[in-house]
Specification:
mainly alpha; three-stranded antiparallel β-sheet; 24 helices; globular
Length: 574
Amino acid sequence: MFTQLEDLCRRLVHEHYGPLVEKVAAVLIEDGRLALGRIIARTGMSALSVRQALAVLIQHCLATHAQARDGARQTTYYSINLRNILRLQRAGLYLALVEERMGQFGLLVFNEVLLNGCMSISSVRDAVGYKQLGAAEKKLFAAAVAKLVRERFITAITPTDTVTKIDRTMQAEAQELEKLASVPMPKELAEIRRRIAAQDEEEYMSTDVVGMKRQAVGSGIGGAPKVVLGPDGQAIILNDVFGSSMGLPSQQQLGEADKDLVDDKQCFRVYHDRLDVFLRNKRIINYFATKYNDAAGVVLKTMLRLTETHTKTCRDKVSELVAAPQIIQHLPPDADLGGAVDMSGDRFFKDAAATSDDSSAARRATQGKMAYALLDVLRRDVSGVVNKVDERGAGQYRINFERAAVMLRDECLDTLVMNKFGSPHARIVRALRDKQKLDEKMMSELAMMPMAQCRERLHQLTLAGYVDMVELPRTADRNPSRTAYLWYVNPQKQAGAALRGALQGIINVMDRLGQETGMRASLLAKSQRKDIVAGLAQLSQNERTALNAINEYKQRIDVATIRLDSMVLLLHDI
């Protein structure tokens, strides 16, 4: 664990939850898994304060707990979740993403769940003033909640969510061992662990959405009408035979009533892993839109939208298969693919490039052929992100998320090296990544620079952690004059060095913001007074200028933090 990671996590907990919770979290970060008595001894706080701080951390999914037998008694151990703590500074990106996809009501529900950690839908309704909404707004609210749950922006709290995966595996293994009459052999133990891993994978691949319940409908032909509760709590009489003739719901209305409803008593939390998938997909789209054109980004965005319903987390290595006609059919109506690919010399696409008919049918045909061409361009890209699996007909495509993560990570590392050292150093890193294990002579030829300069820059990159060196002695005495030195790139070490730099950058930005706000603390406190909030006329011209300057500075700091956090997402979370 990096010291920068520990420092940043403590700062984030202090910023969001205060000094008492930060003190308990700092102990768990430093010492790892601890029992309650040990946490009380390390913090010097009262037992009540420690329990309350742990309740806050567990409520916001920042800490987990598990029971283990300690002699004749059960002891509860607590541990911290550093990944979720780092995601606290990503809340703004999550809110913007939810507003874009779910609208205002979806943003309202998501914001309440995000602020409270975990929350039931009935509590959300009480918090947002559901009773004061109109009938149309209540329907929009219910639809937004159902969509949030169905698309896994928020997910139901289960008993296993507060237990780490290691503890769940250990408990399952202990239960299996208790069933055996004797000490297990290594083969039996391996079989038990294989079954547990297969069960975990099966649960992960399950498509069931916890927290949804099926609304009952009519009993069938000739059956008596049933009374069910609609989304607004109103009684609806259902009957399959006498629908429209007796004033009861028609078949179409019955179909609308037969929907999944959200369980109001079920508690939900923000599903960070799912939201990181959307952020990663945005980066993939921006990469290809920048590399080729906006039309390529539109085609790839449509493809990702069709497959993201089956993508649970960033663990998934590949997407589901999607057919080319399906991609073309779901392209946005306002998508302009004209001129995206130069097809004047291609006999197959010659008609699409030369057509001048403005009819809708001709436009759709031209757009479809352009989309086929763009899919072929994306498939032939050297990154190997878009793969064509089936050659029959128009073909089926899938996205390789594992290669996409490597591609985005390499792009991030190249940008870091370019900004920190310069273009010659970035050229060296790219050459080593492509060729691997080169000596100084070959490296200088590939990088097109004198050997002395190449050696100096290699040593600079080695000290920074972006390049490694291996020794190949020709004799047993390991004499340097008779030793060959090969330079290469270690992806894990390179990503670790970049991650340390990004975390330290966030810490520096937070320190600078604290220093700037501390220098103007009196002015900021004055601006929060009720009479000043009502109107800034009571402030002098110099005070208004200084207040505008500090607000503009905060905005720049927020932008810098978001950029650094996007690097943390690429280097740490995907």
